[in-house]
Amino acid sequence: MEGVDYLADERKKAQFDVDEMKIVWAGSRHAFEVSDRISKLVANDPGFSKEERTMLPRKELFKNTLRKAAYAWKLIIDLHLSEEEAEKLRCFIDEPAFIDAHWVLTSCLTLIFAYAKLLLWAQRNNRKGGCPWPTRCKFGCYAQTELGHGSNVRGLETTATFDPQTDEFVIHSPTLTSSKWWPGGLGKVSTHAVVYARLITDGKDHGINAFIIQLRSLEDHKPLPGITIGDIGTKFGNGAYNTVDNGVLRFDHVRIPRDQMLMSVSQVTKVGKYVQFDVPRQLLYVPMVDVRQTIVADASTALSRAVCIATRYSAVRRQFGSQNGGQEIQVIDYKTQQSRLFPLLASAYAFRFVGEWLKRLYTDVTQRLQAKDFSTVPEVHACTAGLKSLTTTATADGIEECRKLCGGHGYLCSSGLPELFAIYVPACTYEGDNIVLLLQVARYLMKTVSQLGSRKKPVGTIAYMGKLEHLMQCRFDVEQAKDWLKPSVILEAFEARAARMSVACAQNISKFDNPEEGFAELAADLVEAALAHCQLIVVSKFIEKLQQDIPGKGVKQQLEVLCGIYALFLLHKHQGDFLGTGYITSKQASVANEQLRALYSQLRPNAISLVDAFNYTDHFLGSILGRYDGNVYPKLYEAAWKDPLNESDVPDGFHEYIRPLLKQQLLQTARL
Ligand SMILES: CCCCCCCCCCCCCC(=O)SCCNC(=O)CCNC(=O)[C@H](O)C(C)(C)COP(=O)(O)OP(=O)(O)OC[C@H]1O[C@@H](n2cnc3c(N)ncnc32)[C@H](O)[C@@H]1OP(=O)(O)O
Ligand SMILES: Cc1cc2nc3c(=O)[nH]c(=O)nc-3n(C[C@H](O)[C@H](O)[C@H](O)COP(=O)(O)OP(=O)(O)OC[C@H]3O[C@@H](n4cnc5c(N)ncnc54)[C@H](O)[C@@H]3O)c2cc1C
């Protein structure tokens, strides 16, 4: 029945102030208000409908994305939306688009410009009153990856050879594998690209540098001479990421002016002299750090959507246990359902808070860069790489788990989960393969351990290594389940586990004559040590959040329950690490599990309200199973009839292919 809230009884059970929790989730009252207003604006505008997205053929799908992008652009201008509001608009339109790379790039290039003030190209254009980076009339993409190399950035093959005669670079794709491959927005829309290429002057290879290159005419949008561009083909899933034109790009001796090199770490002079500035070369990698922190911030949004759908549906769905003609049991009341679902709900909150913290850390490093302070770059790189890896892996796995938690109906596109998974899962690969990124964290950890004896004190997220002696010896010496709720106990357990795993790796590497050989041989252990370190960061940032003043009846208590679930679930999942490193006994591990079960029971009455606190509209969720009112079955039934296959009783092709077959069989049967 329309207008009935089938989840009303669930909502009445809440033991906390949901409106205050909405503000905690959004980050501030102001952020909540902006988010609430823009999400409703999008939901109520038929121009942003996404109902038929999974059924459209690619060309129509892509055209529709272009229409939506232009429409969004017009709204931004007509309604004078601020940057914050426009960003929310992009989020709630909920369609990956060519515009995403442009959006991200605009911000990170601003950073490079601001930091270096060495970017001659920008200076020249500013003098002319032009814009340093294409904005409204031009679109940019980030062309780093090639057909042959993605992770190994130093292995890229595109060349930028300086010609002092003409004061130009000649950009060339010397091999098939040097073709740029994957950049989003490149295939059909971008007019400009930041291209990573090997810089060559006077026959000498100076490694990878970045260049801004115009790709298409601003008149007729055709590729410029010497440039070949196309889309790389259909990707995983219906609709999903196929709204983006990931592209291929080749250069045939394309000439660009010298000052289109992004000269933030090095410069080429008019006479072709290569000058390296007194700044770390790694600054060239800063755009990746920028996008990674955004990906961490976005992970909680994707995971919370899936969790919201699975939680609401688990309260609606009933199976077994009817007694005396009464109702069957809601599947959310099965302990197995809780032990799969509630840690994901807790993870969504945990990722939200670690994302907020990472943004602050990133803002801090950008300010330091402008003051030429590079000291925190290695830590920020390790944090963004590690947390990108941890949150995207857990989110992709979590979305798939939510699909299974919804049983058969989760497999329908109308559940919203297949498309959400298909859109989300490449996050485990783009902006750095998740294993490659954890290996970067492991390098940072091994470096930290090797420097422990020196005067360099570990700070920031690695500060715990400073008390290594204690962490190597301490033992968990309490026996009661409730002891596991003490933040100091949880923190020490995660610190001891992370420290001991890193030290064990370092000791094992030292047994090899060549450390690089040892690192390669022990890579699988190193990845686990890196993960333990990253999990410690997430747990500790959740605990830090709880130390803040959090208003609202019962809000802090709910967050404490969620924090306990997040930490104890990890402890249960990685019990082998905690037992193996000797910090806890198996009896203590089983007591922790007892406490975890108690926390699930505490969370249960609040589950629906905790997902309501995400404040998602039905439009954004895009899921019949996750509808706010829980009116699932009539809507599922109704949606089935909208499938194109149901437009006729007899499908196309039946008379052409199946009928003759049936006739033939009938004839054969008659002959018998
Ligand atoms: C607003 C809109 C939001 C939209 C949401 C998102 C939509 C997203 C859309 C999708 C968009 C998708 C878009 C895309 O996918 S864009 C393509 C992304 N590609 C990658 O991420 C490639 C991954 N590979 C690498 O990052 C590197 O090559 C690795 C790390 C493997 C190094 O390999 P190698 O060992 O050969 O490197 P080296 O010798 O040159 O350098 C090593 C030194 O550099 C330090 N170092 C390394 N990296 C960084 C760094 N980043 N910041 C600071 N420092 C860094 C490192 O600690 C070491 O330092 P030291 O120990 O020597 O001191
Ligand atoms: C949807 C999508 C959008 C993208 N957008 C862009 C874009 O806008 N611009 C752009 O430039 N690129 C883009 N990319 C490319 C992306 O950044 C790369 O695909 C990514 O960095 C992984 O690199 P790769 O493909 O070379 O993987 P590979 O490195 O070839 O990975 C293959 C396997 O090898 C393993 N492996 C690789 N190296 C090591 C190692 N050292 N040790 C252990 N294992 C290793 C990996 O773990 C993985 O299992 C995009 C990719 C996707 C899927």
UniProtKB/TrEMBL annotation:
It is found in: Peroxisome. It holds the Pfam family ACOX_C_alpha1. Keywords: FAD, Fatty acid metabolism, Flavoprotein, Lipid metabolism, Oxidoreductase, Peroxisome. Residues 285-446 form the Acyl-CoA oxidase C-alpha1 domain. Residues 17-105 form the Acyl-coenzyme A oxidase N-terminal domain. Residues 141-243 form the Acyl-CoA oxidase/dehydrogenase middle domain. Its cofactor is FAD. Its main location: other. Residues 487-663 form the Acyl-CoA oxidase C-terminal domain. InterPro entries: ACOX_C_alpha1 (IPR055060), Acyl-CoA_ox_N (IPR029320), Acyl-CoA_Oxase/DH_mid-dom (IPR006091), Acyl-CoA_Oxase/DH_mid-dom_sf (IPR046373), Acyl-CoA_oxidase (IPR012258), Acyl-CoA_oxidase_C (IPR002655), AcylCo_DH-like_C (IPR036250), AcylCoA_DH/ox_N_sf (IPR037069). Belongs to the acyl-CoA oxidase family. This is Acyl-coenzyme A oxidase.
